User: Fold CMP-N-acetylneuraminate-beta-galactosamide-alpha-2,3-sialyltransferase 4 from Betta splendens.
Amino acid sequence: MSKNIIKTWCLRLLPVLFFFIVFVTYYHFPAVLQRCISNRKPLNNSKSLCGGWQTQKKWESLNFNISRQTQLFLQLEDFFWRERLSKLTLPYGLKGSEQMLLKVLAMTKSYEVPAQIKKLECRTCVVIGNGFAIKNSSLGSTINKYDVVIRLNDAPVRGYESDVGNKTTMRFFYPESASYDPTKHNERDTLMVLVPFKQQDLRWLKEILYNEKRVRKGFWKPPPQIWQGDVSKIRVLDPHFLWQTAGTLLHIPLDPKSKQNPVHPTTGILAVFVALNYCDVVHIAGFGYPDSRSYRQPIHYYGYETMKSMKNSYHDVNHEAETLKRLEESGAISFLHQRL
Ligand SMILES: *[C@@H]1O[C@H](CO)[C@@H](O)[C@H](O)[C@H]1NC(C)=O
Ligand SMILES: *[C@@H]1O[C@H](CO)[C@@H](O)[C@H](O)[C@H]1NC(C)=O
Ligand SMILES: *[C@@H]1O[C@H](CO)[C@@H](O)[C@H](O)[C@H]1NC(C)=O
Ligand SMILES: *[C@@H]1O[C@H](CO)[C@@H](O)[C@H](O)[C@H]1NC(C)=O
Assistant:
């Protein structure tokens, strides 16, 4: 064949080759693209907060000098061999409460966070305080986007959805702050997390779980005598967290022999500390009290309580506010609205 013939054939084949390439690309490119995209996790709105966040590093930068603990709740199977639990009495340890706890945990049977949250590579959490600051904030839909929404005590949701959202992953409470019908302001799957401050708190739960005679003594406010919650959603927070919130985060002297009234962390700062252990992103809203001199200023986003009711409390709210500020400045938490 002469060079000319080869040249002509080549020229004729070129368009065919061209079409072939276009054809292959056209049919296979979307599949390739699809594979590339589906290899990456779909980014949800709150997930965009996760970028570049290295939880362990953040934790270490807080200089707590303790390791993070992501097992939040007490489990029947492991509390007997955990020696440290028996060194302190409640609220910071379980000395003397073991039998009561054994009965409670034997009845509740579940000790974990739901699997779909546990398996997340990056957990975004928001802790909703009950403070007046969240009123009219319109944060409801933002709050609902977090993987974990932690609420406190008996704070209502119905009627306040536009400001506080309506998702509740966990609710931290103690008997005096329990509501007799937990279904009203929670979801079906909400974990009801008992924070045991004293032995009576475990006794209260045991009496309800086993429908035993209720002992009313030992509470600063009468707790509900009936409790219509789902037993499988009850969890008991490991006292480790309250102990470390008091000692490591707030530096409260933990000497039990001290004659002074005990100062204990609020459920709010405790929940923030738990979130720092468990979550990759920690945001908070509804924290902060008004100036202690403004006695008429409401303190909650619901109801009519004022600073007056805080006068004789076992909490040091100013010290807690400073601690939150410090955590914010170090980048460990952020406020969803302006800090009070
Ligand atoms: C993103 O959100 C959708 C629905 O809102 C959910 O099905 C999916 O699991 C979420 N993805 C991640 C990675 O959380
Ligand atoms: C950290 O803890 C260890 C043991 O608990 C102790 O020896 C050490 O002094 C602590 N470091 C700081 C900076 O507190
Ligand atoms: C919240 O909004 C309502 C209606 O717009 C208004 O009447 C009320 O004063 C606001 N409360 C606060 C605390 O801003
Ligand atoms: C929360 O509110 C949204 C929108 O109003 C609604 O679709 C959803 O069912 C509510 N969820 C719960 C648990 O009440």
